[in-house]
Design brief:
- The protein is of the alpha+beta class and 516 residues long.
- 39% of the residues lie in helices and 20% in strands.
- It has two domains: 2-275, 2-Layer Sandwich (Nucleotidyltransferase, domain 5); 281-455 and 486-516, Nucleotidyltransferase, domain 5.
- Strands 3-2-1-5-14-13 form a six-stranded mixed beta sheet.
- A hairpin with a 4-residue loop joins strand 2 (11-18) and strand 3.
- The longest helix is centred in the first third of the chain and has 18 residues, at 58-75.
- Bound molecules: adenosine-5'-diphosphate and D-xylulose (XUL).
- The site of adenosine-5'-diphosphate has 12 residues, from helix 15.
Length: 516
């Protein structure tokens, strides 16, 4: 058996797989808000942060780990687990003093993790990916390196507020004494991995690339980016390594307390997006994942470390080797819901509008589908921009607006993923809106590629379990064939007769975007 863990914003999830039977043996989750109400973080982060700060309590993550393992141990025989891997919400960081490693080595199964490890925190709270407080630090790092293009060329992304380097710089500036006392800085992923392994372990390339510190060409920490971020940083960071690197045996704490075998080993942990790439069966270039959630994300494997010349996309390590892109679109379901409510429709009306009702209008009316500020492209929109027939612009036929909104979202995605130069062979769709057949059909039509939907719900934790099995000697392609099957009858083919209409619409969409 192989165990995958995912420490996300709102919960800690475990997926246990048996590669021989091809089955998921069990899945468990600890929801931070419901299960650990004493931390007063109903959505996993501390509410009410000032100046764009969004932090979580790393002690809560430790307590969740004990709770999750006690649930797992009550339900299953953990001595069967051969390897553990995992993932974490990206960019979040944990700050520890030099006692961390000795505390890990001396963990006592008779006590809990929080009690033994919390005294090592030099910063009581951890900034997470929702934090936008570091605009000034991003500008400083960018200036020192000589511009955004240079930061992007080296690290795979321009300096981004939530990324770990700018966050570390802000900590160094606001609390230099605590920064000086910090002997180790971990990502959420490498922090949890270290606790499991009983020693400080490496940061994997997948998650490490979300720091604005890793040089993608050398896969080593970039000296100039480190110097621009904070003094003495190199000594505080674990070394970078590949996700499938085996770190050694699981800590005796988990053997003594939860019945893991002392022969059970640990691979590295990666970011939740790289782990999802694995869990969605998309680690080979040509397979694209589009997640239609609160925001929409587009991620895909890439053969080399190509970066977005416009600075919207990010490049992370692909746990299967090579690299992956991640592009976020803030106006995802937020915009779909805004139009739905404005037109007084429901989701089935959306489905009908996109499926049959308006096919003859494909690609004719344009909508820049931004109901609030967007990050891809970066614009302060306050409402959508329309260009088309009077019936469309006046909403006399609401279905035309639904089609134009969805087409606009997917044209914007197609346009802003062109820099990857990867041919889209197949799209795997996930997230709340992916079950809407009308929306899924428009994804297929606009991208002119077949769409599949997977039954997977915890794609990051499943991906982590597959990484564990791969680190244990199983073939990752074969594992993905078994565990990442598309749901029966969920596949949709593109309407190839619409290809020219969307080619032309993309050109006009780009021109309209430039004009506003
Ligand atoms: P999150 O990003 O928060 O994990 P989910 O992936 O769970 O979000 O997606 C939730 C969103 O899915 C909701 O905000 C809702 O707008 C959208 N959604 C749910 N059902 C449908 C549907 N039938 N058609 C279109 N959108 C839907
Ligand atoms: C990616 C990002 C989020 C977090 C969510 O850049 O910030 O997707 O990884 O957990």
């Amino acid at each position: 058996m192989f165990l995958g863990l995912d420490s996300s914003t709102q919960s800690l999830t475990a997926v246990l797989i048996d590669p021989d039977s091809g089955e998921i043996a069990c899945q468990f989750s600890v929801n931070f808000g419901n299960d650990l109400p004493q931390y007063e973080a109903s959505n996993g982060f501390i509410p009410g942060g000032a100046n764009g700060e969004v932090h979580s309590n790393p002690a809560m993550w430790l307590e969740a780990l004990d709770l999750l393992f006690s649930r797992l141990a009550a339900a299953t025989d953990l001595s069967q687990v051969k390897m553990i891997a995992g993932s974490g919400q990206q960019h979040g960081s944990v700050y520890l003093d030099s006692s961390f490693d000795t505390r890990l080595a001396a963990l006592d199964s008779g006590q809990n993790l929080v009690h033994q490890l919390a005294p090592a925190f030099t910063r009581q709270t951890s900034p997470i990916w929702m934090d936008t407080s570091t605009g000034e630090e991003c500008a400083e790092i960018t200036n020192t390196l000589g511009g955004s293009a240079e930061v992007c060329r080296r690290s795979g992304s321009i300096a981004i507020e939530r990324f770990t380097g700018p966050q570390i710089r802000r900590f160094f500036k606001t609390d230099p004494d605590a920064y000086a006392r910090t002997g180790r800085i971990h990502l959420v992923s490498s922090f949890i991995a270290s606790v499991i392994a009983g020693k400080s372990v490496s940061i994997d390339y997948g998650d490490g690339a979300g720091m604005n510190l890793l040089n993608l060409a050398t896969l080593a920490w970039d000296r100039d980016l480190l110097d621009a971020t904070a003094p003495g940083l190199l000594e505080k960071l674990p070394s970078p390594a590949a996700a499938t690197t085996v770190q050694g045996a699981v800590s005796g704490y988990f053997v003594g307390k939860y019945g893991l075998a002392s022969a059970c080993r640990c691979a590295l942990f990666t970011g939740d997006n790289p782990a999802s790439l694995v869990g969605m069966g998309a680690t080979r270039p040509g397979n694209i994942v589009i997640s239609l959630g609160t925001s929409d994300t587009f991620f895909a494997a890439m053969p080399g470390p190509k970066t977005d010349p416009n600075g919207f996309g990010h490049v992370f390590g692909n746990p299967a080797g090579g690299f992956m892109s991640l592009i976020c679109f803030r106006n995802g379901s937020l915009a779909r819901e805004a139009l739905r409510d404005r037109l007084g429709l429901d989701w089935s009306a959306f489905e009908r509008a996109a499926l049959a009702g308006t096919r003859e209008a494909a690609g004719t009316n344009l909508m820049l589908p931004f109901f609030g500020p967007e990050i891809t492209p970066r614009r302060d929109f306050t409402g959508p921009v329309l260009q088309g027939s009077p019936a469309f612009e006046s909403a006399a036929q609401p279905a035309l607006q639904v089609r134009a909104l969805l087409e606009g979202q997917f044209l914007n995605m197609r346009l802003h993923s062109q820099w990857m130069e990867v041919k889209t062979e197949r799209i795997r769709l996930t997230g709340g809106a992916s079950k809407n057949d009308g929306i899924a059909q428009l994804v297929a039509d606009v991208f002119q590629a077949p769409v599949e939907r997977l039954e997977v719900s915890n794609s990051a934790a499943l991906g982590a379990a597959l990484i564990a099995a791969a680190a244990g000697g199983h073939d990752l392609d074969a594992l993905q064939q078994t565990f990442c099957q598309s749901s029966p009858d969920s596949a949709l083919q593109p309407d190839s007769s619409l290809a020219p209409a969307y080619q032309d619409a993309m050109r006009r969409f780009a021109a309209l975007l430039d004009a506003v």
